[in-house]
Amino acid sequence: MADSDRHPFLQGFSKHRGAPATVVVIFGASGDLTARKLIPAIYNLSYDNLLPADFHLVGYGRKPIPDEEFRTMASGAVKEFSRRELDAEIWGRVAANTTYVSGGYDERAGFDRLAAHIGEIEKGIGGEVQSLFYISTPPSVFGPIIENLGLSGLGGRNLGNANHSKVVVEKPFGRDLNSARLLNSALRSVFSEEQVYRIDHYLGKETVQDLLVQRFANSIFEPLWNRNYIESVQITVAEDQGVGTRAGYYEQSGCLRDMIQNHTMQLLALTAMEAPGSFEAEAVRDEKVKVLKAIQPIALAEPGDVCRAQYVAGMTGGKSVPGYLDEEGVAPGSGTETYAAIRLSINNWRWHGVPFYLRSGKRLARRVSEIAVQFKAPPGTIFGQKERFDLAANTLSFQIQPDEGLSMILNAKIPGLETRTQPVKMSFRYATAFGSNTPEAYERLVLDAMIGDGTLFIRGDETETSWKLYTPVLDFWRSQGRKGMEGYPAGSWGPNEAGGLLAPRGHAWRQP
Ligand code: BG6
Fold this sequence. Notes:
single chain; alpha/beta; Dihydrodipicolinate Reductase, domain 2; 2 domains; nine-stranded mixed beta sheet; six-stranded parallel beta sheet; 17 strands; 33% helix; globular; binds 6-O-phosphono-beta-D-glucopyranose
């Protein structure tokens, strides 16, 4: 494809972002994530000419699957889940180098076969390749995979310069501080930190990356970005879907582990961090860790900083839906929360006294993720008469999804022969400014891992810092059984009790 035929944002792109010859090995090759996200991401990278000339895809899994069948599965995944239609020629380029190795995750011989297979690929190419091991299996086999990558010599293959072998680890990265530490030490016994790419797919979302650009490529925000001007910050990651067919996983997880500890904390870190010295991975991640470390321990005893709840039967999209306890696969009397809200305080010079409110849940009124920064009211406003002057707090909101963009609530004069006011919204919409066919998070993340750019991945100390904050909450909830578990009707904005976290400061949840 000629450079000029490509999407305008991609022109000139691959010239400075080329990956070396690469074998991507997917552990968990017949899993859901592979079909929904990874294979479509690889296809779209190929579509945009962003894969290296020598690119090979190897599926690894317990099930014996002939190469041809794996290719058929993969093309089916592209047809069903890719943002672009399957183009036979483009897919053909990937398929020609797609193979499958079967073996157990705790079976050393399987990894030796994999090593021999990669050796054959290198022979065919006539040179060395970097291996990107993508662990997309249930977490119970993360440990054996890492150990066997070490034992078979695959993990330690250091090809000099930046071309190490690399490992991408899917979530969940541990289920508390202790398990996250164990997983980190297993990884470190085989890989160096710079070879490890811990995924939080929220970091691959365009608007999440845009947050850094808005904050650090514009000068107007920084002078206001502190406790002198900001009243509070609200971070919402709301879903309208219920637990669906994933109760098996979700029952072991719950909202705090599934969404708060990772996705909302990443949004918080990018909102609250100091400006890094450069846009390099370590500089950015150092600042994220610093701000996460400045968060105060979460108060648990009544009235604490947390609220948890489960959805009960309600209406969504005009349809009645069952409550969580009646969903298939959910244990009777389950103590798993489907909603969590937290109030956090950051103890540093910039944020002292500014509450950060986080909430996430399933079966909420609509699917929306946003960061809303509410500014302080002007001092002793001259527009005091409520009946004439309808005023709202200035609020800057980063719309992560859907309707990606940025908006600002300002107060304006209503046209007319007397002075009356009304809040107005000034908006920037991604789709309007740039068109809507933006890459999926996984495209960016798979490409970055191949290139060796860890900026949008989570460092080991970052994940441990976040778990350190939330493990006491999880322990406390476990000790309480269902005590303190609130309910909210499916299709609502969550339990009324969550409003209690904001009320002491006179704040209220937004209805985005
Ligand atoms: C995943 C969670 O990490 O994120 C899911 O495990 C959740 O429960 C999903 O539905 C939400 O991702 P997105 O990109 O649809 O907001």
